[in-house]
Amino acid sequence: MSMIEFHDVQKYYEHFHALIDINLEIDKGETVVLIGPSGSGKSTLVRTINGLERIQAGKLIVNNHDLSSPNTNFDILRRDVGMVFQHFYLYANKTVLENIMLAPRIVLKMPEEQNRTEALKLLDMVGLKEKANNMPSQISGGQQQRVAIARSLAMKPRLLLFDEPTSALDPEMIDDVLQVIKRVTSVSDMTSLIVTHEMGFAKEVANRVIFMDAGQIVEDDQKESFFQQPKTERARKFLSKIITH
Ligand SMILES: Nc1ncnc2c1ncn2[C@@H]1O[C@H](COP(=O)(O)OP(=O)(O)OP(=O)(O)O)[C@@H](O)[C@H]1O
């Protein structure tokens, strides 16, 4: 069963053709990593999936919602589609625990006790239970990003999108966040699409790798084949330039 289907999708920013003939199908439960040079369209592609960017042509189906239709209800779509951004956007005037409990309380009308229990469980999962009553400004950037991940999970998304979740972090914070993402994507039956520049992480966590260049999907392959034998010269060049670890 598909979670995401792109059929001949085109996206323009004014006259700039940012996504060109995108055809892509991602099944429920897959963990897909999206890589490619800066400006190749990775963020744009991910942002079309929850309607932060609209497409101009083609068909885009996400969790059975047709995003190419003018009648799409994005509020309903976004209940099932979480997103973790480069910057964490926590509510600065609310505690870590309150940040996690807010959306389930308001959107899902979850009873308070259940909400608190589940939020604490999620904080435990991201290794931050002892920070529940701290304010976001009292924890590190890496810890804030782990709270943002817990906050997304609190809505029990079917699909979780990550847009360069570690690129705003100090190097020593990156590993903890990547380990949390790895844990989250391996224990649940959620579908995940992750834009990252961390190749070591992509090798560890992905089932499948999509490589974009200049607005197009150039390769779409199982992780092993992509990293061992990229099919195109563009992907070979990209892989030879980046530092792997
Ligand atoms: N709002 C916008 N208006 C006009 N052009 C845009 C807009 N957003 C992105 N672009 C352009 O679209 C192209 C793709 O951008 P996008 O951010 O999707 O690339 P990316 O692969 O995510 O890059 P990076 O790895 O640097 O984040 C770039 O050339 C960018 O300048």
Automatic annotation (TrEMBL):
Pfam families: ABC_tran
SUPFAM superfamilies associated with the record: P-loop containing nucleoside triphosphate hydrolases (SSF52540)
InterPro entries: AAA+_ATPase, ABC_ATPase_HisP-typ, ABC_transporter-like_ATP-bd, ABC_transporter-like_CS, MetN_ABC_transporter-like, P-loop_NTPase
Domain of life: Bacteria
Record key words, sorted: ATP-binding, Nucleotide-binding, Transport
Stated family: Belongs to the ABC transporter superfamily.
Protein name (Swiss-Prot/TrEMBL): Phosphonate-transporting ATPase
Organism of provenance: Bombilactobacillus mellis
